[in-house]
Recover the amino acids of this structure.
């Protein structure tokens, strides 16, 4: 019996978290520090969320030494994964956690934005709810500020609560320099080169909204985050959303002559 | 000659069944055989004649007499592997020549395809593929798995790969699977996506995913039946970007509190996913006509025209509406051209 315990122990010792974050489908998770896990304060309230809380925590901390059957072990294992996720949601908004997630973000571990105009900007995982077993994890693009479904089905099943609704926004509050430059570039549906009226009318309306926002921000002397060139030309024309090269050149020369 | 049409061994059908070519429609042979449809392609494709022959599964000219016969022979011996068939057919040619023709044929087929899917038969075929969900769904969460359409960002081959246009949010996305990264966007063209929406105005764009979404997007108006047929700017109001607008724009929050616009990391792109709560706000021509004391610099007749055509229409005869829509479609364009210092007219 002692043999079995030590055996299973060595199997998991210092490996459980390693194993967890490196197993397939868990690419979005970062490794939680030992110190964070051992500080009970960080785990406040989680004991009511997770079944077999103590065993699950022991398993995560690699001090699990309960002699039990496979079925029990399976249940505890499941609880441990759930508990890890819930702790993860808290951990990633700490300074250390943010730094770890930032590394993963920079490596584009969470995938890239599918939107063409975002130019494969890296995504961040997020939840639509902080309550577990509610909504699956989604991906947030900081460039277009929209949410996307994960490409792969193995990520579609991850609970969104393991990342939470605040993490990605906190990240950019803590690292404001990382807020990507926004682009007014967009797709305009066309038929043989002509814009389609319904879509173009909507685009004009949206551009109006954008210019309103820019004016608001300028009044308060806040950087709108858009690239300079576009910032200026918006004032003059409410029809600046041209993907055509000629038109862009024309506008560029216009602004140049205006200076 | 057309013995091979529709047979699964034809070059066209085997090209379309290749991995990564799932978005392609099968161009009918009649369409290719009409020279008018191929106008100008000679100059764009190397070895044009040979490539065209390969697409149509026609033998080279030198053995024109037994063309039909040979064609049938080959059909028998080919087992779905068209590339092998192609190799066997032109036994007189060198292998390197063949690969050039093969790639020329693919290019030519793509360019014909770009034209074909904008024709009546082609767009019909694409609509069937759309119905079956062959083009995938929009990755955007708030579009609720709306089906997408393959489009190109350029009509010139070799510039960009195929993209997916989501009619629900009017944006373009990179296909999720990397195998589509090898498909040229010009083979679908810039026109198809928009033309599709104009050709099939009755499609419920947001159908896939959740039906409650459509009712949600319409909840602002009280009478559902009038709303059903409400047309604005030549499209059913319910089909104008159903995935955008209030409730479908992401609002960043930290611990439940919204992030302020004045924050450095505050929201800046919400306009992109926004839509007026009252869709009638987009009826620019009507609003313009309603403005008091305007139209001093504009053509009076145009304004008159648009006022009549763009008024909010009660439910009625669909054909009548279509006729009116055409009249309405024309006028805002001329208005736009006049106000835009003719910049648009250059197009």
């Amino acid at each position: 019996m002692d043999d079995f315990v030590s055996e299973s122990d060595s199997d998991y010792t210092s490996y459980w978290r390693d194993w967890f974050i490196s197993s397939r489908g868990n690419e979005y998770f970062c490794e939680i520090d030992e110190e964070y896990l051992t500080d009970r304060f960080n785990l406040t309230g989680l004991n009511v969320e997770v079944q077999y809380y103590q065993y699950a925590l022991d398993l995560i901390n690699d001090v699990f030494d309960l002699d039990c059957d496979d079925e029990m072990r399976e249940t505890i294992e499941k609880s441990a994964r759930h508990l890890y996720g819930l702790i993860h949601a808290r951990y990633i908004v700490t300074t250390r956690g943010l730094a770890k997630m930032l590394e993963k973000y920079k490596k584009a571990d969470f995938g890239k934005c599918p939107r063409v105009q975002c130019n494969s900007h890296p995504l961040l995982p997020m939840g639509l709810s902080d309550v577990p077993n509610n909504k699956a994890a989604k991906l947030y693009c900081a460039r277009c500020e929209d949410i996307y479904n994960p490409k792969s089905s193995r990520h579609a099943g991850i609970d969104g609560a393991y990342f939470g609704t605040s993490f990605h926004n906190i990240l950019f509050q803590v690292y404001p320099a990382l807020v990507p430059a926004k682009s007014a570039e967009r797709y305009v549906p066309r038929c043989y080169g002509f814009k389609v009226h319904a879509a173009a009318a909507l685009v004009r309306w949206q551009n109006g909204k954008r210019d309103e926002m820019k004016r608001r921000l300028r009044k308060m002397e806040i950087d709108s985050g858009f690239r300079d060139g576009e910032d200026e030309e918006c004032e003059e024309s409410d029809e600046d959303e041209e993907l055509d090269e000629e038109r862009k050149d024309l506008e560029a020369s216009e602004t140049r002559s205006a200076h | 000659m057309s013995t091979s049409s529709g047979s699964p061994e034809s070059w066209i059908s085997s090209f379309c069944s290749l991995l990564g070519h799932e978005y392609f429609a099968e161009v009918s042979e009649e369409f290719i055989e009409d020279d008018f449809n191929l106008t100008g392609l000679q100059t764009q494709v190397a070895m044009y004649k040979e490539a065209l022959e390969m697409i149509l599964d026609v033998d080279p000219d030198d053995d024109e007499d037994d063309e039909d016969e040979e064609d049938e022979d080959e059909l028998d011996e080919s087992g779905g592997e068209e590339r092998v068939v192609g190799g066997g057919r032109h036994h007189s040619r060198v292998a390197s020549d063949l690969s050039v023709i093969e790639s020329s044929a693919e290019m030519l087929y793509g360019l014909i395809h770009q034209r074909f899917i904008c024709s009546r038969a082609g767009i019909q075929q694409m609509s069937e593929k759309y119905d079956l969900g062959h083009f995938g769904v929009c990755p955007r969460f708030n579009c609720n798995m709306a089906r997408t359409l393959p489009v190109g960002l350029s009509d010139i081959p070799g510039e960009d790969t195929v993209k997916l246009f989501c009619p629900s949010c009017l944006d373009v996305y990179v296909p999720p699977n990397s195998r589509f990264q090898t498909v040229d966007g010009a083979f679908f063209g810039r026109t198809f996506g928009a033309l599709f929406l104009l050709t099939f105005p009755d499609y419920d764009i947001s159908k896939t995913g959740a039906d409650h979404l459509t009712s949600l997007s319409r909840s602002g108006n009280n009478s559902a039946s009038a709303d059903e047929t409400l047309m604005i700017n030549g499209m059913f109001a319910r089909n104008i970007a159903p995935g955008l607008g209030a409730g479908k724009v992401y609002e960043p929050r930290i611990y439940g509190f919204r992030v302020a616009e004045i924050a450095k990391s505050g929201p800046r792109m919400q306009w992109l996913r926004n839509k007026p709560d009252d869709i009638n706000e987009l009826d620019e021509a009507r609003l313009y006509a309603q403005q008091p004391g305007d139209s001093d610099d504009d053509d009076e007749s145009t304004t008159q025209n648009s006022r009549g055509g763009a008024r909010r229409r009660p439910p009625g005869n669909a054909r009548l509406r279509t006729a009116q829509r055409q009249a309405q479609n024309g006028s805002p364009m001329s208005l736009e051209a006049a106000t835009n210092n003719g910049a648009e007219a250059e197009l």
